[in-house]
Write a structure and sequence with these properties.
Layout lengths: L1 H12 L4 H19 L1 H21 L5 H20 L7 H17 L6 H10 L3 H4 L5 H28 L2 H10 L2 H22 L4 H6 L13
Helix pairs in contact: 2-3, 2-4, 2-9, 3-4, 5-8, 8-9, 8-10
Amino acid sequence: MRREVGAELRNLVSGRVGIADGVLPPILFVLVNAVWGLTPAAMAGLGAALAITLFRLARGRPVRFAIAGLAGTAIAVVFAIRSESAESYFLPGIISGVLTTAVLIVSVPLKRPAVAFTSWITRGWPLEWYWHPKIRPAYARATLIWAVFFGVRTAVQWRLFLDGEVEWLGLVRVGLGWPALLILLIGTYLLGRRWLIDLGGPSVEEFRQGSPAPWSGQRTGF
């Protein structure tokens, strides 16, 4: 079980510098802002994101996630400078959280749970398999769990934003970023695999082959 979960996590985060991209810029922004003010803090956050991107380029590693992180940091810096408030650095992330939560919730009654699309992108399984009536409920449940996570995280950040708590915003951004997301991924993977077994739907290979019920079911992956 431990080996399987480890392999799944490596598959999910391979090629990403999520920890560096998600932790270093906001930490530097908060620390520098506390000592030297907004403009140096904005330069420090943007410089950290740029340094990560250049490092990955120099090492020949995938850069698409680092570039996305650089773009996100640049947008955050623009918000902070234009509003002349350090807490506005975190406003783009809050807006993104609201949109993400809305998409997750809406996708369930539309019978196209968003978590199914993330699995499809990662694994390349047939998209129609996810919409099978004995498969889709598992991904709908996982999507609702994700909606609760992103909703709570966004609500906490919004409250701190209204209170102007820059340091706490930074801590929440880091603490509820990749560390919490990895826990979420492990939890939904373990629960999702159990749900698929309980639902008794076809495995991916059984679906591809058009095998009739009863099915052995999908035993690995989610």
